[in-house]
Write a structure and sequence with these properties.
This protein has 308 residues and is an alpha/beta fold. The protein is 42% helix and 17% strand. The chain is globular, with a radius of gyration of 20 Å.
Length: 308
């Protein structure tokens, strides 16, 4: 994991400048951020720089061949609005004490969810859907668990440390994906500050794995798709329940999470079953509000050969 000592003096200045600017944005009134800055950013992304427009168009056409051009254009407009909101909402998290967090993220039916996870390490599977970074803050309602925000190291050291700082709260800590297994095993017995662990994994991105003849393909949004199954392997090996985090947008920048059990940590299941359940539940969430998913990702880099 990158540390502040790894930065040059210029990089440290850049980091603190970026943090200072975003904190100034974060303390602005809600209407300024989401009804003034967000539309401006939307216009720039959609109509000035045309951010990854070809990728977005191709992904939407392949995912929804049954939709008309007008319907696809509407989803694309909604996507760029959501993308602008993700930027604004992420900056908004730079200054977010508990009282403020409760206005932006809540957990549905927590009284039912909590008794099922009390005293247990769990895995929470998320997606690049809506303002997913808010998922780090569900722990404000569950003080017995520490959320591990599992992430890929960024190429920019400044941005990597910016997001590390953003994801470090009294309820959450960032952990690099490549270090997750070692980190979990080291802390599995005692927990973290006497708190059990909730491993938050964003599992919908393109996996950086080789495509082999026995690679498992899943049918996802009308396309054969590869998914990383590390969460399933961890769950089966250590008997950890797996929950799906369903994000529902209730207002600009504000979400409610519903946790749905995919695997209880005890059930005897076939290989790939847990991942398949995640894929199916993910598609349901995307189809409900397709504009909230990150269509600009090059999700389908790998194509399945006909002979497979």
């Amino acid at each position: 994991m990158i540390k502040i000592s790894d930065l040059t003096l210029l990089q440290r200045v850049a980091l603190e400048t970026l943090w200072g600017i975003t904190k100034c944005l974060a303390v602005m009134p809600y209407w300024v951020k989401f009804y003034l800055l967000e539309p401006i950013l939307y216009f720039v992304l959609a109509h000035v720089v045309h951010y990854r427009r070809r990728v977005v168009d191709e992904n939407l056409r392949n995912a929804f061949p049954e939709k008309s051009d007008e319907e696809l254009r509407a989803i694309k407009r909604g996507f760029y609005h959501n993308l602008a909101e993700v930027f604004v909402g992420t900056f908004n998290m730079v200054y977010m004490p508990d009282a403020k967090r409760k206005r932006y993220i809540s957990t549905a039916d927590f009284a039912t969810f909590y008794p099922q996870v009390e005293g247990r390490d769990i895995i929470v599977l998320l997606a690049h859907h809506g303002l997913w970074e808010l998922g780090l803050f569900w722990g404000q309602e569950c003080p017995t668990h520490m959320t591990l925000g599992v992430y890929h190291e960024l190429h920019s050291k400044v941005l990597d440390l910016f997001y590390q700082r953003l994801r470090t709260t009294e309820h959450s800590i960032p952990v690099q994906k490549k270090e997750l297994m070692r980190f979990y095993l080291l802390n599995r017995k005692e927990g973290i500050a006497r708190r059990r662990m909730a491993l938050g994994l964003i599992a919908d991105q393109h996996p950086n794995i080789p495509i082999l003849p026995d690679t498992r393909w899943y049918r996802f949004l009308n396309q054969d798709t590869v998914f990383f199954d590390g969460a399933e392997q961890l769950a089966l090996r250590y008997g950890m329940p797996v929950w799906f985090a369903d994000f529902e947008r209730v207002a600009k920048g504000r979400y409610r999470i519903t946790f749905e059990l995919l695997y209880d940590g005890v059930e005897q299941v076939e290989k790939h079953t847990v991942t398949e359940r995640y894929v199916q539940r993910l598609e349901q969430m995307i189809r409900r509000n397709p504009e909230l998913w990150m269509w600009s990702h090059r999700r389908w880099k790998h194509k399945r050969h006909v002979e497979d």
